[in-house]
Amino acid sequence: MTAVSTVAEPLAPARPATALPPVRRRVTGLRWAVRLASLVAALLIWQWLTVTDATPWVRFDRLPTPVEVAAQFGRLLQDPVYYQDIAQSLVRILTGFALAALAGIAAGIAVARSWLLSDLLQPLFEVVRPIPAIALVPVAILLFPRNEQGIVFITFTAAFFPILVSTRHAVRALPTVWEDAVRTMGGGRWRVLTSVVLPGALPGVFGGLSVGMGVSWICVISAEMISGDFGVGYRTWHAYTIVDYPAVLVGMITIGVLGWGTAAAVELLGRRVTRWLPARGGAR
Amino acid sequence: MSARTGLALRVDGVSLGHGGEPVVRDLSLDVHPGEVLVVVGASGCGKSTLLRSLAGLLPVCAGTLSADGATVTGPSPDRALVFQDDALLPWRTARRNVELPLAIRKVARARRRARAEHWLAQVGLDGQGHRLPAQLSGGMRQRVQLARTLAGEPRAILMDEPFGALDAQTRGAMQRLLVDVLRTTPATVVFVTHDVDEALFIGDRVAVLGAEGVRTLVDVPHPRDAATRGTPLVRTARREILTALGAHDDRSVPC
Fold first, then answer.
1. Is A16 on the interface with B (CB under 8 A)?
2. Most buried of A21, A44, B238, B246 (most Cβ within 10 A)?
């Protein structure tokens, strides 16, 4: 080992990039095995508790077994209504989320950059922000002629505030030197906004987008359960009312997978656009 | 390219400060077109504040600042400011940073790129344009900043301790590079430092700044000629600057 390291020494600066990956891959291989084992163990425990109708205190006798759930899942995968529900929920959440991202980033920058807009909008935001978006269901029903719009509105409101707040903080935390530099090159307000504020705030903004995506799912599902007539949330609640418990669990798993997928998409996009951050592997 | 000339900067009875109590009072100073004026002074005596005001980033409390006779009211691409460190946009590659002033001036994309490559080569960074600032050393980042400043073809370059964060060796190399590069531009330069030897190597004149204004203005003998370092004339100038800097410290006047 010592012999190897002395030989490799002169190359040290160039070395890590090529030398590290194999080691890291082996480590992640092991770690993936652990992660998989954890999931499998959870499923086995679930199966055992439900098959034996265990009722130590929490009652497992009415909960469907994983096998029943899997069978129901298999049936639903053949059913076009299942896909329609997924598509419906995705359209709702993506519409609400996209609108919230645009509005939240714009409002966050406006509030952070202009004292006038801050004074105009900030009190409003602070009053509305603590209200859980799902509590707006009655308002949404009153305001919007169509149920669909109401659900999108609730999703929008849910995602809007985390995005707004994180954008505002990110913009305020920007070092002034970048803006000064652009201004002394003759850059105006618009140039500062597009070349400094927006790219500089992006790492913080993506924090808000991740949180926003999470609460959007909570709200779209809840809204669908309360006032929907299709969608994954509605279907899950409907399955409960007709005592089809395996279908309830299939709905829950579907929601989990969809939420995970969209969160991963946001995360991936965030890493792409903030690749310049030194902490995230500046070497590559 | 039209014949660019250096700006004449005039500081007339100026008080400077970030609100509240001014750091500098009643400062008057003339910077001649095309010269390199170095401003020295202990930290906290308003050297950087003066530069920020000349750049138009900070309004003066009293008095007037003018460039070629016109009062300075805000930033202008004519007056570029070079910062001590970390002024590059970290999400842009070195080349895209150098392109920035050209993009602001709406230079066509292909020409922008060619100009940026040219200036990167001028500061000895050819082939490094694709790197992000985080992948460059402190000295290289300052080179990129210099290239970015020069690409904007300013008529005055205001440099705020640009080599202050560098180690001694890199610093010496950067001073030589700066002297070489400045030969190719007609711009007026105001260079702030607290290093007297740096001042004597780079400047035509050295102004010693104190809280009460300019303490002394020293003409540098044989400016930018490394061979004259240590000659009696230069030593006299050096002593004169050090006296102006130090004499007041003995009487424990701040700055």
1. no
2. B238
- Banded model confidence at residue B62, pLDDT cuts 50, 70, 90: confident
CA distances to A36, A138, A167 from A153, in Å:
38, 12, 21
Among A177, A184, A191, the strongest candidate for a mutation testing the B interface, having the largest count of B CBs within 10 A, is: A184
Q: For residue A23, what pLDDT is reported?
A: 57
User: B63: left (phi > 0), else alpha (psi -120 to 50), else beta?
Assistant: left
A201 → chain B, closest CA residue: B91
- A-chain CB neighbours of B90 within 8 Å are 276-278
Q: Are B82 and B52 in contact (CB under 8 A)?
A: no
3-state secondary structure of A261: helix
Separation in Å, CA A178 to CA A96, A276, B18, B124, B163: 33, 15, 19, 24, 18
Q: What is the pLDDT of residue A26?
A: 65
Concatenated DSSP letters of A8-60: HGGGTTTHHHHHHHHHHHHHHHHHHHHHHHHHHHHHHHHHHHHHTT--SSS--
Contacts of B135 in chain A (CB under 8 A): 282-283
What tens digit of pLDDT does each residue of A104-120 get?
Answer: 999 999 999 999 999 99
Instruction: Say yes or no: A205 contacts chain B, CB-CB below 8 A.
Output: no
Of B100, B134, B152, the CB nearest to A282: B134
Residues 6+ positions from B102 with CB-CB distance below 8 Å: B111, B112, B115, B116, B151, B152
What's the per-residue H, E or C state across chain B? Answer: CCCCCCCCEEEEEEEECCCCCCCEEEEEEEECCCCEEEEECCCCCCHHHHHHHHHCCCCCCEEEEEECCEECCCCCCCEEEECCCCCCCCCCCHHHHHHHHHHHCCCCHHHHHHHHHHHHHHCCCCCCCCCCHHHCCHHHHHHHHHHHHHHCCCCEEEEECCCCCCCHHHHHHHHHHHHHHHCCCCCEEEEECCCHHHHHHHCCEEEEEECCEEEEEEECCCCCCHHHCCCHHHHHHHHHHHHHHHHHHHCCCCC
Considering only CA atoms, give the Rg of chain A: 25
Gyration radius of chain B's alpha carbons: 18
Instruction: Report helix, strand and coil shares of chain A as percent, to nearest 5.
Output: 80, 0, 20
Residues of chain A scoring pLDDT < 50: 1-19, 280-284
Q: Please report the pLDDT score of residue B67 as a whole number.
A: 92
